[in-house]
Amino acid sequence: MAEAIRKSKSYCLKSPKHPLDHFWRFEEQLRRRFGAFSLATGLVRGVYTDPDTHRLVSDMSREYTIALSEDRLDELRRMLAEEVAPLFVQKCIYLSVGGQAELVINANLRDD
């Protein structure tokens, strides 16, 4: 099963630009935990309505693909919520699992 992860730059709590070392740290986490990843060439353009501001947002994101078994999905979701979203100062991370989209909320912002 392939997982596509897009780190939204406009759906960011602070600056929409991220230092390269953040991406290197993220990629090292993917490699260590899941063994491998693929990074799409170029950036992916997305458009959405920010649920907090109700403004239309257009952003450019990197798209990663990870092949992993279904029993490791919760591990990936936890990593995105607890480590990746805070690292990139994101409200959430877009995750596509088998073609089904979901938003993984930054653990520091969840109400639970």
Detailed description of the structure:
- It is a single chain.
- With 112 residues, this protein is an alpha+beta fold.
- The protein has one domain (2-105): Alpha-Beta Plaits.
- The protein contains 2 helices and 7 strands.
- A 5-stranded antiparallel β-sheet has the order 2-5-1-6-7.
- A hairpin with a 2-residue loop joins strand 6 (92-97) and strand 7.
- The chain is globular and about 40 Å long.
Structural topology:
Elements: E1 2-6, H1 20-34, E2 38-39, E3 44-49, E4 56-61, E5 63-67, H2 73-87, E6 92-97, E7 100-105
The biggest beta sheet reads:
5 strands, antiparallel
Strand segment count:
7
Name the overall outline.
globular
Work out the helicity level. 25-40%
**Strand-pairing-aware structural class:** alpha+beta
**Helical stretch tally:** 2
Give the H and E element order: EHEEEEHEE
Task: Give the terminus-to-terminus CA distance.
Answer: 29 Å
CATH architecture: 2-Layer Sandwich
Précis, in short:
The protein is α+β, with helices and mostly antiparallel strands. The protein has helices at residues 20-34, 73-87; strands at 2-6, 38-39, 44-49, 56-61, 63-67, 92-97, 100-105.
